[in-house]
Amino acid sequence: FWRAPWEFAIHGIVGTSIFAIIAALAVALDLSIGWLETRHWLAPHRISVFVILGLEAAEYALFVTDLSLFGVFLWRTAKRTIKDL
């Protein structure tokens, strides 16, 4: 009877860790974009607004996909655990 909750706990920890790693990459991308936008010493080498917009779109897409897949993962793991109890 303890096996299903144990597997849920392990899957939850591993899934949460993977979510946190990918979310941290999205945050790092956000910080990098902010840094690129505020660097005045890059003035002779201005970064195109389209490049910045593309990076921001990638950042949001990464985070939304990560959050969605994390929710699906938790839902499926919970369903499997309840079924195995």
Total helical segments: 2
Return the string of H and E elements: HH
Compute the CA-based radius of gyration: 19 Å
Counting helices, strands and paired strands, the structural category is mainly alpha
Report on the structure:
With 85 residues, this protein is mostly helical. Helices cover 85% and strands 0% of the residues. Helix 1 (3-38) runs antiparallel to helix 2. The longest helix is centred in the first third of the chain and has 36 residues, at 3-38. It is elongated and about 65 Å long.
How is this fold's topology laid out?
Elements: H1 3-38, H2 49-84
Helix pairs in contact: 1-2
Question: What is this entry, summarized?
Answer:
The protein is mainly α and 85 residues long. Helix content is 85%, strand content 0%. It has helices spanning 3-38, 49-84.
Question: What labels describe this entry?
Answer:
85 residues; mainly alpha; 2 helices; 0% strand
